[in-house]
Design goal:
Elements: E1 5-7, E2 13-15, H1 23-28, H2 44-47, H3 50-54, H4 60-69, H5 72-76, H6 89-93, H7 100-113, H8 119-131, H9 139-147, H10 158-167
Antiparallel strand pairs: 1-2
């Protein structure tokens, strides 16, 4: 018996038997991701993407096809879902008005929940939880803030604590590579 195989754009075959046929529906269940149903793979999203210019393997079109095909593990473990520059060119060029930025956000959330978050992203998240900012404050910033009577970045922020509590982001674990 011959197994059905597909390639996901880089030439290596992927067994169709490993596909999650509910994955596309699961992604499109997010309110901002319903538009993925309208995508007909014209490629306008990838043609206008500045990240695709630098990293040709990054392709919103390819990711959309992979989601609709049920390639859950390949999509969620892909580093490409984290590459988006948030320029929205893909959305502005899409004739079907697919909100690909929102789809990527849903994919990132799903990837993080399933243990595929990059370690650097998890570390930045820890920094935000600890201080309220993404990057550690340099001593010169701390002095300037004090000079201008601005509040400390390390103060207890009730709104930040509430966001952390509601999102559960403090429970995200970094990806552990099997290699």
């Amino acid at each position: 018996m011959v197994k059905a195989q597909k390639t996901h754009g880089r030439g290596e075959p992927v067994s169709a038997s490993g596909f999650d046929h509910n994955f596309g529906s699961e992604v499109m269940a997010y309110p901002d991701c319903k538009g993925l149903r309208a995508c007909f793979s014209c490629g306008a999203c990838s043609a206008g993407c500045p990240i695709h210019e630098v990293f040709p393997d990054y392709s919103p079109k390819r990711l959309a096809k992979m989601v609709r095909s049920g390639m859950r593990k390949e999509v969620l473990s892909s580093p490409y879902i984290w590459y988006c520059a948030t320029c929205h060119n893909c959305e502005q060029r899409c004739p079907q008005n697919v909100k690909f930025f929102n789809i990527l956000n849903a994919l990132k959330n799903m990837a993080a929940e399933e243990g595929y978050a990059p370690a650097a992203w998890v570390e930045q998240t820890k920094q935000v939880i600890k201080t309220g900012v993404v990057f550690p404050a340099e001593e010169s910033w701390v002095k300037k803030r004090k000079k201008f009577s601005l509040p400390s970045l390390k103060e207890d922020h009730p709104k930040l604590k509430k966001m952390i509590e509601l999102t559960g982001i403090d429970k995200i674990k970094p990806r552990v590579d099997a290699e």
